[in-house]
C-alpha cells in the first residue's frame, strides 16, 4: 500500500500528515507488516507480507480502515490530497480489479525512471524503429501487393490477421500478420499446445521446444509458404511505425500465454518493447525451450546496445533465407 503525500505543499502540512499517518499505520498494521518510506518525504509504503494478492476482501478492509482513519484524523481538505493505492506483487492476470493492467510500474522504479544514458539510447532506438519501419514499408510495397493478391486468390477472408498481443508493461495491442490460416479457425488446439510447451519448459530444461504447431491443418497452402519464409510477419512494420513494437526485441506473447508465466518470465515484458526479430529468433527460434527463450530475451535486455540491434537486423535475412528453425 502506498500513501502519496507529494501534493501537500507546505512543510507544516506534510509534517502534520506524516505524524498522523504514522499513528494510523501503527494502529492498523500487524507485527508481520513492514512500513517505511518508498520515496523520502513523498510516498509512505506498507508491505503486507501475509496477504494473498487475490484476497480482495482483506485488501478492501485495510484500505477502508486506513482511509476512514485519515479522514477522521486530518482536515478534509488535506485528506483529499493524500492518494492511497494498493499494488499486488507478484502480479497475476487475476488481479485486474486491483491494478490497472498486468504490471504495476510503481513496483519497478528503476524501469519507470531510467537514467540519462538509458533515455538517450531509447531515443536513438525510437528513431531507428521509425525510420527503419517506414523505409521497409516503402521498399516492400510491391511484395505486400503480390502477397495480398495471392492470399485473396487462395482462400476466402481478409488479407491481414489481427490478434491481441501483450506489449511493453503488459499493454495490449492489435498485432498484425498476413493471414496464413483459414477464416474462423479454432484457436483451442494452439492454446492447449502452448500450455503444454510452457509447462514443459518449466519442468524440463532439456526438452526440445517448438513454439508453433507443425502440420497444422488450419494453415492454407499459401499460408504455409508465408510462414516458412517469415513473409507473414511483414505487416508488423506497421506496429513498429505506430510505436507498439520495435524492430528488435522480445517476441510479443498472446494474453493466455501470460496466464502461465512465472514471476521471472514477466520481466521480458517490463524492460523492452516486443520486436519483429530478436536474439531468440536469431539464435534459438523454434529449436529451443520456452525457459531458454525467456533467458535469451533477458540476455538481450541486459546487454542491449544500438550495435546489438544492428547486428541482429543484419543477421535476420540470413536466418530467414536459410530457413533455420522457422517460426
Provide a concise account of the structure shown.
This protein has 327 residues and is α+β, with helices and mostly antiparallel strands.
Order of helices and strands: EHEEHHEHHHEEHHHEHEHHH
- Strand order, largest beta sheet: 2-3-1-4
Class per helix and strand makeup: alpha+beta
Shape: elongated
Total count of domains = 2
Largest sheet properties? 4 strands, antiparallel
Radius of gyration: 24 Å
- Low-confidence regions: 95-100, 203-210
Provide the fold topology.
Elements: E1 2-4, H1 11-28, E2 34-39, E3 43-47, H2 56-73, H3 76-79, E4 83-85, H4 109-112, H5 116-139, H6 141-154, E5 160-166, E6 172-178, H7 188-203, H8 221-229, H9 236-241, E7 246-248, H10 255-258, E8 275-277, H11 279-283, H12 290-302, H13 306-322
Parallel strand pairs: 7-8
Antiparallel strand pairs: 1-3, 1-4, 2-3, 5-6
Q: Would you write up a description of this structure?
A:
The protein is α+β, with helices and mostly antiparallel strands and 327 residues long. The protein folds into 2 domains: 2-86, Alpha-Beta Plaits; 113-322, no CATH class. Helices cover 46% and strands 11% of the residues. It has 13 helices and 8 strands. It has helices spanning 11-28, 56-73, 76-79, 109-112, 116-139, 141-154, 188-203, 221-229, 236-241, 255-258, 279-283, 290-302, 306-322; strands spanning 2-4, 34-39, 43-47, 83-85, 160-166, 172-178, 246-248, 275-277. The strands form 3 sheets. Strands 2-3-1-4 form a 4-stranded antiparallel beta sheet, with no helix packed on it. Strands 5-6 form a two-stranded antiparallel ribbon. It is elongated and about 70 Å long.
Amino acid at each position: 500500500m502506498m500513501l502519496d503525500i507529494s501534493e501537500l505543499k507546505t512543510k507544516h502540512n506534510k509534517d502534520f500528515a506524516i505524524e498522523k499517518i504514522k499513528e494510523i499505520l501503527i494502529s492498523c498494521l500487524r507485527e508481520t507488516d513492514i512500513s517505511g518510506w518508498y520515496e523520502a518525504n513523498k510516498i509512505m509504503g506498507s508491505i503486507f507480507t501475509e496477504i494473498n494478492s487475490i484476497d480482495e476482501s482483506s485488501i478492501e478492509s485495510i484500505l477502508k480502515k486506513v482511509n476512514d482513519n485519515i479522514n477522521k484524523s486530518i482536515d478534509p481538505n488535506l485528506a483529499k490530497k493524500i492518494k492511497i493505492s494498493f499494488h499486488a506483487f507478484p502480479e497475476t492476470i487475476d488481479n485486474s480489479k486491483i491494478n490497472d493492467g498486468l504490471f504495476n510500474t510503481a513496483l519497478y522504479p528503476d524501469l519507470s525512471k531510467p537514467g540519462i544514458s538509458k533515455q538517450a539510447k531509447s531515443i536513438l532506438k525510437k528513431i531507428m524503429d521509425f525510420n527503419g519501419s517506414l523505409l521497409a514499408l516503402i521498399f516492400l510495397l510491391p511484395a505486400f501487393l503480390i502477397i495480398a493478391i495471392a492470399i485473396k486468390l487462395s482462400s476466402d477472408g481478409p488479407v491481414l490477421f489481427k490478434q491481441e498481443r501483450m506489449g511493453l508493461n503488459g499493454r495490449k495491442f492489435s498485432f498484425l500478420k498476413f493471414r496464413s490460416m483459414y477464416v474462423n479457425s479454432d484457436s483451442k488446439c494452439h492454446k492447449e499446445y502452448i500450455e503444454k510447451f510452457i509447462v514443459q519448459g518449466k519442468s524440463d530444461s532439456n526438452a526440445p521446444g517448438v513454439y508453433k504447431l507443425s502440420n497444422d491443418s488450419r494453415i492454407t497452402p499459401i499460408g504455409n509458404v508465408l510462414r516458412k519464409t517469415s513473409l507473414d510477419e511483414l505487416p508488423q512494420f506497421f506496429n513498429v511505425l505506430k510505436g507498439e513494437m520495435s524492430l528488435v526485441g522480445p517476441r510479443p506473447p498472446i494474453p493466455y500465454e501470460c496466464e502461465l508465466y512465472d514471476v521471472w518470465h514477466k520481466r521480458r515484458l517490463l524492460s523492452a518493447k516486443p520486436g519483429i526479430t530478436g536474439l531468440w529468433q536469431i539464435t534459438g527460434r523454434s529449436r529451443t525451450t520456452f525457459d531458454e527463450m525467456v533467458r535469451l530475451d533477458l540476455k538481450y535486455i541486459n546487454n542491449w546496445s544500438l550495435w546489438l540491434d544492428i547486428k541482429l537486423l543484419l543477421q535476420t535475412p540470413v536466418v530467414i533465407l536459410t530457413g533455420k528453425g522457422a517460426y
